[in-house]
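Quick one, T. Sequence first:
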Amino acid sequence: MTYLAYSDAAERNKDAILEVLGRVLPARGKILEVASGTGQHIVHFAQKLPNLIWQPSDPDPSACEAIESRVLQSGLSNIKDVVSLDVGGLPWPVTHSDALICVNRGSH
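C-alpha cells:
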C-alpha cells in the first residue's frame, strides 16, 4: 500500500465543513478545491456529495502526488485528476467551476 499524507485536523473538521458545504453548494456542478493538501477533504466531500464533480488542485508537486494516490485508492469517479494551481499565477489550468472552496486545515 502506498503511504498517504495525513492530517489530524482534516479528519477532525471534515464533517463540520461538509455540513456547511451541503447547504451552500449547488446540487450539481463542478467544484474546484484550491490547495487540496492531503486530499482527505476532497475524497470525503466527493463520497458524501456524489452529484458534484470535484476538481482537486495544489501548487506543491508532492501534495499533488499525495492527492492522486488518495483519489486512486478511493475509487471515486466524481473526482477529476489533480491540477497544479498557484492562485497567484495566470492563466489558471481550470477555466470553469460552479463553486470554489479553500479549506484552511490549521496546524498539524
